[in-house]
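Appendix C: a fully annotated inverse folding record. The material below is reproduced so that readers can follow the format used throughout the book. The structure is listed first as tokens, followed by the designed sequence.
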């Protein structure tokens, strides 16, 4: 199976193409990618396959794209609330 593992940093994107055996999992793909060794600060928390949340034991299919997500620096809902509160005060 052809699998792609990606991790995006603010100024660069790490992308690794792999040939894995059928039945391989998300965790197996991440380990096989070598990203954990190349990027010592990388912590695998949330991951997805083609933009949909997936667990480490999710079985992959040919042509899947495994995405490793960075933690959010701020809660988007809270930012919108703050922006709306500021806009309300300026009226």
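Designed amino acids, in order:
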């Amino acid at each position: 199976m052809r699998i792609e593992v990606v991790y995006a940093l603010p100024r660069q994107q790490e992308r690794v193409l792999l040939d894995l055996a059928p039945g391989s999992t998300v965790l197996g793909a991440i380990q096989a990618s070598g990203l954990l060794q190349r990027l010592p600060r990388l912590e695998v928390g949330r991951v997805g396959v083609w933009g949909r949340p997936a667990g480490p034991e999710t079985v992959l299919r040919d042509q899947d794209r495994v995405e490793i997500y960075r933690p959010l620096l701020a809660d988007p809902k809270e930012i919108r609330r703050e922006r709306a509160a500021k806009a309300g005060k300026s009226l």
